[in-house]
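Batch manifest, entry 17 of 40.
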Amino acid sequence: MEILPYRRDTVQVIPIGGLGEFGMNSMFLRVNNAGIIIDAGAMFPDYDQPGIDVVIPDFSFFEEQGLTDIVKAIVITHAHEDHIGAIPFLCQDLNRDIDIYGTKLTIGFIKKKLEEHNFEHNVNLHIVNAGESVRFDQMKVNFIQVTHSIVDSLAIFIETPFGNVFHTGDFKIDKTPIDNRHFDFAGFAKAGERGVDLLFADSTNVERKGYTLSERVVGESLEKIIASSKSKVLVACFSSHIHRVQQILNVARKLNRKVALVGTSLINAFNVAKGLGYLKIPPEVLISEREIPDFSPERLIIITTGSQGEPMSALSRIVRNEHKKIKVEEGDTVIISAKTIPGNEKPVLKIINTLYRKGAEVFYEEVSEVHVSGHASREELKMVFSMLKPRFFIPVHGAMKQLHHHMLLAREMGLHKRNIRIIEDGDVVELSKNNLRYVGRLQIGKRLIEGSGFDEVEEIALKDRRRMAEDGIIIVAMVVDSNTAKLNGDVEIITRGFILLSDSENEDEINAMKEIVVEKFYMLEPSMRVDWEYARPHIRSALKKYIRKRFNAFPLILPIILTV
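Output type: structure tokens
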């Protein structure tokens, strides 16, 4: 990878993730010999990435660019997965002592995540509060309180001798927050007075007119739905949505229902938030999962994970009748209290259709107010522009469509086109007192993670999985006599997920494949037949050619050759 130059006495910015896509939010800012990383998030896998649990940025560029020792800290805006999900992997790649700063709940979630990955060494966790500041050489990082769909969210104002940078993080302006921690208008106005040279602002809802509704609206809607339900109620939401869980607990107490939590990530988040004092548990409301059969359905509320249709989530398993204690029955109410993340529409729709088929009443964002966004709509974004009065602007947190519309909004607010830049992951820009200039581009890749550890799946393995999912697999098993270089017994062909024909046609096709394998095998030189590394690709190629011509299919072909 080409080493990009750094011009001294500038603020260099490298977006690592979250620009041109939803998720993986992360950004590197450097001033001379000190740099900070803002957030380190993960992303849900696409439907064409079977077996992948999360997608994260490839942080190896820090070492390749000689930046590892320059990183002084990781600063986190809030505790959503798309902002903290990649922290264990980033810490592993930095491979040195590193300081992480965040609010109490954010640090609590990060600590739990590091424990789950068995990675707690070389990490120093620091709790900061809104209104406080931390200095890293020539950078003064100020933390400003914002409202979002998770408590303890921050915006970050970075003051340097070479230009001031403001990062909104994820935010909305909720005038009636559940926890009474209000959006810090004064903090934003004060930053505007000091001078914001470069603004990074959340683009998620830039296409929505007006203002984003308060979280309290959801509580009122949930109470109406649950009060009218004559059977058990299942509520699917993000595990980190502490406000939502609190409101459901309050409704349960009012309606004399019991609440059970189902799903490992939900229970972990609940325990962290409860332990830190962010949840107030009404007496005798909470029950364990094993106690669910002890109560009649009309007295139950089950909060679960799976709002995005994840196949291994609690809700998906319940819908597939794979849960030991919970089944969806006719008359039940299911509330999907979350926005569908782009790319997850198909699995979520599949769950909704299955629930209707089972006779359940289903509520979701498009048909009822069971979810409100945690992101600012157009009028709130305009208010931020008015308070901050930025000299330059770069939209963040969104696909290209959102970034483009945020650029148009900035122009509507009076910012000249030359002072706005739309950039994507890997684009490098530098801020100085005179201008904002494009420096170049780094190829920052993505890592595909399987399981709960650090196991990475290579693209070639993912390609094989796609082929197996689409066209199945064909296994060719054969035994070769090492002395005579001839086949010892018959060739065995096993298929999985391929050619659904009648039994007689199946047998004919299998025999035809065997003939092709045998013919190709004896076309090889005798010395090559006993060399399985040489023989295997020739057999695969011959069979692949036949199957493509006969079926127009591309199954994974796996020859297994044993010499005796």
